[in-house]
Fold:
Amino acid sequence: MVTALVSYQVSDLSALPAAADDIAAMVEQVRADPRVDPERVVLWFFSGGGLFAADWLRVPPPWLRGIALTYPLLIPFPGWEVDARFLPVEALSSGTGVPLVLTRAGQDIHRFWLASTAFLPAATAQGWPMRVIEVPNGQHSCDILNHGPQSEAAVLAARDAVLELLDAG
Structure:
């Protein structure tokens, strides 16, 4: 398995389209690496990066084996003006359905928790295959901030679910 980490900060919502295009270009750069099987890729989005998952949910390329979402922001905060391109819940209606791995922190920031509770029934209604990993006592960034057995088990479960997606097919 090869892992590439893209850390991206967007301080102005008008920069979301350019950032999404940069991320897509970085994904292609990783896929072009000779150590990578370009036909077996899982994309993993954390926190505010969840908004970037919408493009991949809407029109997943044939090489995409799945999408992992960890304590993701899936609905913009109230007052945020974002293009429909960055609305993951609405993107689910495409019905294409790559497998999903969703990790939810029970003590997450309220807006993040609400977004995941809207995402789950929408994904289920559209028939998206999904594995949900719950961290009942986890807070936002529980994989970093809550170094307890519950968070550790969730990190390992998410990792294993991603590995299963890579081995499928």
The beta strands are 41-46, 64-70, 100-107, 130-139. The longest strand covers residues 130-139.
